Each structure stands twice: as C-alpha cells, then as structure tokens.
C-alpha cells in the first residue's frame, strides 16, 4: 500500500523552496508519510530549517545533499532502493534553450509520479483539470487516460474541488480520417469519446474544454479558462533521439502552465490513488 510509502522532495537552495515545501508538508502531514529531502546545494542551515518545518506535525524526515550535476543519478538510486509514492519539486525556472531541462529529464528518466509545483494557490476548493487524449485508439494511451481521470477525480474529492477535463483536438487539415475534415466534427467526436470514457469510469465533471490546437498550447489555455489550480496529465516518457528532438507532451506544456502539474505514467494510478484516498 502506498500509505506506507515515502515522499521524495527535491529542494534547490538557489530557488524559492516555499511552494514545494508547503505542498509536501500538506500531503505528508495528512497521510503521515515519511519524507526524504534531496537538497541541492551546501547551505546546511536552510536545509535543516526545511527539515524542521516538515517535522512539526510529526512527519519523519531524512535529508540528503546533492548537486544539479549528480541529481538524476542520485534520484534514480533512491528510487531503486526504496518505494516512493510521489516525487515533489518546484518547476525549474531556468531556460534550457535546445537542451532538455532538469524537469524534462526527471519526467523521462524516473519511474515515479511527479508533482511539479508552480502555482501559489492551494488546491482546496479549487479546480482540478484532467488533460486526456480522447481521440486515441492506442490501448496504452487509453489506459493512461483512465489513470489521469481516476487520479484527478480522487484529488478533486479529497480537496473538495471541481473536476474538469480538457482535450486538444487536431486541426481539420491534419486529420487522417476523411470523416474528420471538419473542426466541428472533430470536436464533437472528441466530446462523444470523452463522455463515453467518463461514463465507463462513473465520473462526473463540472466542465470540459475541448478545442483545436497543439496540446502544448491548448491545454495551458484550457487551464486558464477553467481556472485550474492543478493539471493532471500523462506521459509516455519518450526517450532517445526522438525525445531529444521533440520532447514529451508534459515537458512542452510545463513552461506555458501557471499552475501545478501532476505527471503520471501508464499504470501509476494504481499507486497514486491509494496515496490520496
């Protein structure tokens, strides 16, 4: 059971650590989950202050030190040695240009759900948005849709938030199916597919934002329209040359979102849902 699993919190002393620390504190204190802090830097005073803040509610905490250069290898080692239910980290504000960002490497390389904290609003009484690919026929992507919807729904219940969904549709010019050479037809088909999936999972949403455009543009726009405080999205964690050239959907969305983002891989809702129930 994930109730007994640890949280992995990455804090960089060069950044504002308050948001990620606050999210971790709320989750850990609610679940009484132990926390492992990986501190980037050598400021022991600040690191121990962060550790003490988490321990105020009786949360068990241990502290490790690392550098940006060694972080990925150290995180991979920790994940291979212990069971962590969630990795929590502030979204990296640094521009990476053509290089993959640290957050991008974490999303591609680490087998763990990742919460990247970006917004300053708490999730309680807010809006949780699940971003899914409703028009897919790929069985792995369909499972990922289920995972995203189930996790978003559970978080919405726990935080007394509104559950919403968003779907980015391809433009009519890009549609391979001749039946879908109309923007209205494409979006209607996406709405129909989304409704069927929600019905199968016995979920009810307050609103759905279905629109045309690349995922990395439409999902952030939908999050703004719906005033989402958390976006839940899946990733297939594309690696290798293809990943280096075009990245993953979750990576491309990061810089355009103003709220927190929870990124899942296929099958990981089996782990995250027990954590948040």
UniProtKB/TrEMBL annotation:
Taxonomy, superkingdom: Bacteria
Protein's recorded name: UspA domain-containing protein
Location(s) in or outside the cell: Cytoplasm
Gene source species: Amphritea opalescens
Family annotation (PANTHER family): UNIVERSAL STRESS PROTEIN E
Pfam families documented for this protein: Usp (PF00582)
Function: Required for resistance to DNA-damaging agents.
Record flagged with keyword Transmembrane helix: no
UniProt cross-references to InterPro entries, sorted A to Z: Universal_stress_UspA, UspA
Domain UspA residues, every copy: 151-265
Protein family membership: Belongs to the universal stress protein A family.
Keywords tagged on the record: Cytoplasm
One GO CC annotation: cytoplasm
């Amino acid at each position: 059971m994930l109730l007994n699993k640890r949280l992995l919190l990455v804090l960089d002393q060069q950044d504002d650590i308050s948001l990620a620390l606050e999210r971790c504190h709320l989750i850990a204190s609610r679940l009484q989950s132990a926390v492992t802090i990986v501190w980037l830097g050598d400021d022991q005073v600040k690191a121990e202050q962060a550790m003490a803040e988490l321990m105020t509610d009786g949360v068990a905490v241990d502290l490790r030190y690392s550098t940006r250069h060694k972080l990925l290898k150290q995180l991979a080692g920790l994940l291979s040695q212990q069971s962590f239910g969630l990795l929590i980290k502030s979204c990296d504000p640094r521009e990476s240009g053509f290089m993959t960002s640290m957050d991008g490497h974490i999303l591609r390389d680490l087998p763990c759900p990742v919460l990247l904290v970006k917004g300053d609003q708490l999730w309680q009484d807010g809006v949780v948005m699940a971003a899914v690919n409703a028009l897919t026929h790929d069985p792995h992507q369909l499972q990922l849709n289920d995972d995203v919807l189930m996790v978003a729904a559970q978080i919405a219940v726990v935080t007394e938030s509104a559950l919403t969904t968003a779907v980015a549709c391809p433009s009519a010019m890009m549609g391979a199916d001749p039946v879908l050479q109309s923007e209205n037809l494409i979006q209607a088909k996406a709405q129909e597919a989304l409704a069927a999936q929600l019905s199968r999972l016995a979920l009810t949403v307050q609103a759905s934002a279905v629109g045309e455009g690349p995922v990395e543009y439409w999902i952030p726009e939908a999050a703004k329209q719906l005033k989402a405080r958390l976006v839940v999205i899946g990733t297939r964690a594309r690696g290798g040359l293809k990943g280096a050239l075009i990245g993953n959907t979750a990576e491309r969305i990061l810089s355009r979102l103003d709220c927190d983002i929870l990124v899942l891989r296929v099958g990981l809702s089996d782990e995250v849902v027990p954590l948040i129930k």
